[in-house]
Amino acid sequence: MRRVGMVLLLVASSARATGFADHGRDLGAKPEEEVRLDGYFRVRADALYNLDLDRGPTPSGELFYPVPLGSSKGQTLTRADMRLRTDLSIYAPGGMMAVKARLDALDNVALGSAPEGIPSASSTQRTEGETVSVKRVWGEALTPFGALAVGRMGSHWGLGVLANAGDCLDCDSGDAADRIAFVTPLLGHFWAIAYDLSATGPFVPDRAGRRSIDFAPSAAVHSVTFAVLASRTDAARTRRATAGKHTLEYGAYASHRWQDKDVPATYLPVAQPVAVNDAQVMSRGYRATAADLWTRVSGRGYRVEAELAFLTARVDQPSLIPGVLFRDAATSRQLGGALESEVGDAAGTYRLGLDGGYASGDSAPGFGAFPGVNRPAPVPGDLDGPQARPPYDLTVNNFRFHPDYRVDRILFREIIGTVTDAVYVKPHLRGDLFRFASGRLEASLFAVMSWAVNAESAPGRKRPLGVELDPGLSYQSSDGFVLALEQATLLPGAGLHNPELGLKAKPAQLWRASAAFTF
């Protein structure tokens, strides 16, 4: 490789650094390269058949999923998109400091979405909107006491059930935090403390018009996190497994978030612009605490990993309208957890296992996956909606898995949107069909059986949500090319039927093809 001032080395997993133990891990020794670039380009296409389940609208008049326009009998929808992700690390001489960034280009931009002129006559795609998005920029430095990280960085913990940075090839979102974090190794563990400015504003420009001033500091949302964990790198686990050793990893963290006052006019949809002044400031009294435990045991041919999270919160004043106040506080108590396991031969030619998960629910109608702001209260039979209905219902107890923690391909990923108010069991099997000098061809199959925790939440007012079968075929080359074909069939349970119209939910199917070029 030619050297021109700086050396570019294309390797994986450099600037991700989304977990506490990742900060500073690649610092300390002078690197061979001063600039490091890694990432991927992915393209994927889906065909979605009958995801509205042919069960008619909910009592609020909504379908489970969009249906094709222009055809009364249409069942199939299609979509295709792409993303170029680049993770960049720039190291100072000596390797004791680095600045890192993540940039996504054409992030989930739909293929064919920007024809120029009349669609049938278009010969090009125009550029519209934000084509390059800077997702993260932060700095890391080694001090005599530990690693310090400052900036907007990824946030990930454990399996990614609660905090997920969205680093996987098929991820769509991911968490980022404006954070100051300090991590130090002590007594064989990593000890971390982090402070996040989770939300600030509203803002006014300074006199020069170049910087923003937060003129409602009492409305800022703050978060503080403490964590301790014992973890190893992928390479270390592989070496220990090859030597016949077992590796135990674990961690725990507690995070507290608070907001004293709020300015709802800065984020609520309004018909007319509202002047932001003292009259728009109201007391909020928000306090929330999250505790999470994670562990992983692995060795030659096996892995067992689990995460358990508990969240509690209180909002002294849940009203969103200044001057219109509620007498009682809103509260929340949520519990969620996931288990993953796999066992197979030492060479990794086959793996089988059993996964499972639980997300606490709420007795309000609907699953509450994406409650939104100012949405109407759901009625029995609805799929989604706010779980709190002030002033009559002031509790929100449904735990929501992070959407990038993938469990299946249709029910939780597409129809509901995430795992919430549900329990599932997932046996799975995968194995190599062929191994080549340049890569391998792998087949996989998993089944997901799921139930609602609260029957009142399910549209059919029954707990069984159905069984989903998800086969797949993938080719992975040694140079980073990945090609995958996936299929899914959902056999709905009684919890997805439509008792109001007397209609049973019918099976849905999905087909997906994807290609990824990793570097």
Question: Which percent band covers the strand fraction?
Answer: over 45%
Task: Give the rounded overall mean pLDDT.
Answer: 91
Number of strands: 21
Shape: globular
Share in helix: under 10%
Q: Report, as a whole number of angstroms, the end-to-end distance.
A: 15 Å
What does the largest sheet look like? 18 strands, antiparallel, barrel
Structural class: mainly beta
What Rg do the Cα atoms give?
Answer: 25 Å
The total count of helices amounts to: 2
From the 3D structure, determine the CATH topology: Porin
Uncertain residue ranges: 1-15
Briefly, what CATH class?
Answer: Mainly Beta
Q: Can you name the CATH architecture?
A: Beta Barrel
Tally of discrete structural domains: 1
Order of helices and strands: EEEEEEEEEEEHEEEEEHEEEEE
Describe this structure in words.
The protein has a single domain, classed as Porin. Helices cover 3% and strands 47% of the residues. The N terminus is likely disordered. The protein is mainly beta and 519 residues long. It has an 18-stranded antiparallel β-barrel.
Précis, in short:
With 519 residues, the protein is mostly beta strands. 3% of the residues lie in helices and 47% in strands. The protein has a single domain, classed as Porin.
Task: Give the arrangement of secondary structure elements.
Blueprint: E1 8-10, E2 35-49, E3 76-91, E4 97-110, E5 132-143, E6 146-154, E7 176-186, E8 189-199, E9 203-205, E10 212-214, E11 221-230, H1 234-242, E12 247-262, E13 282-299, E14 302-315, E15 330-344, E16 350-359, H2 411-416, E17 422-435, E18 439-452, E19 464-477, E20 481-492, E21 508-518
Parallel strand pairs: 1-2
Antiparallel strand pairs: 2-3, 2-21, 3-4, 4-5, 5-6, 6-7, 7-8, 8-11, 9-10, 11-12, 12-13, 13-14, 14-15, 15-16, 16-17, 17-18, 18-19, 19-20, 20-21
